[in-house]
Amino acid sequence: MKKVLFSAAMFATIAGVMLMTSCKKQQDTIVKKDAAPFEQGVSGSEQKIIDFIDSYSAFKKGAKVEGEPVSLEEARWQWETTFNYCYGFTQDEHSDMRHDTVCVALPKTDPDGNIAYVDILQTYVNIVDAVRECYNAIDMDGKFLKYVTISFDNGTKDGDKATVVINTGKSVNGIDPQGPFNVGECYLWGAMGDLELANAAPGQIKSKVFDYDLRMMYYYTPCPTCTTWIDNISDTTYYGYLENNDSLFYVEGLTKEEVQNYQICYDDLNKEYYYIVKRGHWGQPTNLYGVDWYYYTDVLSFGGASGHDVFSIWHLFKVFRCVRHWRHGDTPYPIPINEEH
Predict the structure, then answer these.
(1) d(CA 157, CA 110)
(2) Which of 180, 209, 160, 176 is nearest to 318 (CA)?
(3) What are the pLDDT digits (tens) for 183-224?
């Protein structure tokens, strides 16, 4: 018997789609005049961050670090951008956001209004320490640091403090990174007659995907009585026996009795769930209107004889797309098909 499905680590990366902006953010890209577009993998701005991180690491170890003094605004950009580069999960979706503030003393400037490089490094140390202490004290399940903004408090004398706003997100609807299925949870593979709806794996996975879709729902209506209609319906089907990455359920070489009693348990259910949602719309809103977009996912089970008294069974899922339109309140539709109108 060949069993293709096996336990594996969950998909760890969530495609991020939220464009985040920060207060007073400024990022100048240094480009060589003779450089072709996309010629170099590291931009001038990113190289500036990397160089600063190297200096910061050396400074923390007690090494003497030299660098050019810069203006207060240039230092602010360096602190904020480097911090978000190192610690900000800016690509991750969140369900809640809280904002905490810490203040850090600014170093003195020279007669030209510039800050010594060593003072820039020390202030960055202070910023990281202050944010870390504040973040560690936040009581929130599934928290992660989304990004920070740094500004100068004009209300203090001589603007001698930097105000750091900490934006702490909560993982999308508190989703457990291990998946929606719990340890010990098992279901029959499917197509089991009266057990199809109650105990079959396809229905259970589809239900979890539906729950995810509801959590990601984009709520908007142009009027209290407006409903929707759809066109340009299309679907993409993924077959378990055709997938080459072992992410969809497929087993071959079973007897009829083994088919009737085959169960899928939590590790593989979670793996299949993540694979299906990632193929559809992971990390993205649902219920969008006026665009060709995700509509819903259907998960089904199939099987067939691969020889005399030898069977194969598998799952397939379909991702449906369509364009959703608003049906305005001046029409009587929709109505149930079994009602006269």
Answers:
(1) 17
(2) 209
(3) 899 999 986 665 666 679 999 999 899 989 988 888 777 777
